[in-house]
Specification:
304 residues; mainly beta; five-stranded antiparallel sheet; three-stranded antiparallel sheet; 24 strands; 24% strand
């Protein structure tokens, strides 16, 4: 008589059935020796085997042990995994040995072997490209975005005051990557700003922000020097610093920027101000004043 696997919903006859087929227990007991494909051997709610049920988990794969008898788990279901090496998906890189299923990672070791994603974001159970704490190993000379756990194109320490950033490590010494607003609208990402108290803040980035802020890398809330956020943005201030020429406001696309006569320089991209300390340093020339260009402008602006 053919060798029969008992205690399973798939009564596979090793000698008689081709690979990938088996005889259901109920059929074998009734005298049938027809070999059916695994995907036609189904489980009913009471775990009985039939060929006419709605929910059809497959009995495949059945792996032979050294004695030639197929190995099977309880109820005929084969575990998805036995160790982490059996799991390689970004969102399922760890083997839960109690359930035999691949689940989310809980430490970096779980992600070894997941190509290009060998760090673990344990909060989300996802394998990721990098983590800030190991960004030098993960990203080389560039930074790791702490929001997305992806390597950026920004060289660490290369960004200066009021330049855009996503991580504290993007910024130079004594600078933090801080979220900012223009009016009530949050700006995308952050900006490298100097903490109040480390050393005097230099114009035109000397205006203290309204409240303490936590950096995008999670540094404790602190006071920072920047620009007057209800009037302008870092980009608009940099246009004046860089002496950007213009003929009309459309030539000054930075939020909070516009085109006005700046002293003897002629038309330049500048921005609104309330006091001269929000403008360029007096040693830097025409853009250091805050006025309405002798009453000809509707607003006070740097260089007016």
């Amino acid at each position: 008589m053919a060798l029969l696997l008992m205690g399973s919903n798939c009564a596979r006859t090793v000698n008689d059935c081709p690979e990938g087929t088996a005889i259901p227990n109920v059929n074998f007991d009734s005298g049938s020796r027809e070999c059916l494909p695994f995907d036609e051997i189904c489980f009913t709610e009471d775990r009985g085997s039939t060929i006419a049920c709605v929910d059809c988990p497959t009995c495949d794969p059945y792996e032979h042990n050294d004695g030639g008898v197929p190995d099977a788990s309880i109820d005929g279901e084969v575990p998805e995994c036995e160790s982490d090496t059996d799991c390689s998906e970004i969102d399922a890189a760890r083997c839960d040995t109690e359930t035999g299923t691949c689940v989310g990672c809980d430490q970096d070791l779980s992600c070894i072997g997941v190509d290009a994603f060998e760090r673990c974001d344990a909060d989300e159970g996802l394998c990721v490209e990098c983590k800030p704490i190991s960004e030098e190993l993960d990203c080389g000379a560039t930074s790791c975005n702490p929001a997305t756990f992806e390597c950026t194109d920004t060289e660490r320490g290369s960004r200066i005051v009021c330049e855009s950033c996503v991580s504290d490590s993007d910024c130079g010494p004594d600078l933090g990557c801080v979220p900012m607003t223009f009016g009530e609208t949050p700006r995308t990402g952050g900006y490298c700003l100097q903490r109040v108290g480390t050393e005097p803040c230099a114009q035109p980035f000397a205006f203290p922000l309204a409240e303490t802020r936590e950096s995008l890398s999670g540094a404790a809330p602190a006071l920072y020097c920047g620009v007057k956020e209800d009037l302008t943005t870092c980009e608009a201030v940099w246009d004046l610093v860089n002496n950007e020429t213009c003929e009309d406001d459309i030539d000054c696309p930075a939020p909070g920027g516009f085109c006005r006569p700046v002293g003897a320089l002629g038309l330049r991209c500048t921005y609104e101000c309330t006091v001269p300390s929000q403008c360029l340093d007096p040693d830097d020339g025409s853009g250091s004043t805050c006025g309405d260009n002798g009453g000809t402008a509707e607003e006070k602006y740097c260089g007016g």
